[in-house]
Amino acid sequence: MTWIDLGNPFPKHPHDLYKPFRWVTGKIQHLPAGLPVASPAVLEALQQRRTVRQFAALEDAGLADFLWYACRTYESWPSDLGFELEYRASPSAGAIHPIHLVIKRPHDERWWLYEPRGHFLAELTTAPKAFEGLWEHSQQLLNAPHATLILFLAEPGKALAKYQEGCSLIWRDAGAQIATMALAACGLGLNFCPLGITGEPWASALAEESQLVGVGLAFLGLAP
User: Fold this and answer.
1) pLDDT of 172-210, one tens digit each?
2) What is the C-alpha separation between 26 and 35, in angstroms, rounded?
3) All domains in the chain, ordered by first residue
């Protein structure tokens, strides 16, 4: 067995200053706020949650509700790291949240960045070229032509500005985000399936100098 040692994370003193990645975006799609829904309590959702691998197409309203409950920012505030810290449903080391969500809906060639502080989607205009073949690659792993594909895209510089040996924190953030989304999907009656692939080498092609890296994918959709 080969175990890759990612080191032991520890806060830097002093910390680094990091300039966040600047996205190249086009069209903006504002999403409605989530409506109150009857859903199981958290402990019931923990017992009911299952990975389901069959999907019907999810309408925009359903996607908006899912992102509202699982991924949006509840509160943000300035920091001396060079970017804002945030509270979301998913825990994150240092409230940094270095994981971005990039979404591809079925039968739509565009890829969309979810902005959790404003609850909207921003078209990534350079993504179709950078991600060419990624959708097909995901379909080879699991044939789900009607599912919405979610790419977990890490920005390591955010976490590494505060923590030395912070790479394992980024993977733990991605896992925490996936678990939170799985429980939210259960509460909303949606099917959710994380994929084992990371999205590399496509994900890192979106930026230069290793500013972005893929740390996972998932399928989301309605029960057929």
Assistant:
1) 999 999 999 999 999 999 999 999 999 999 999 999 878
2) 28
3) 42-121+129-222 (3.40.109.10)
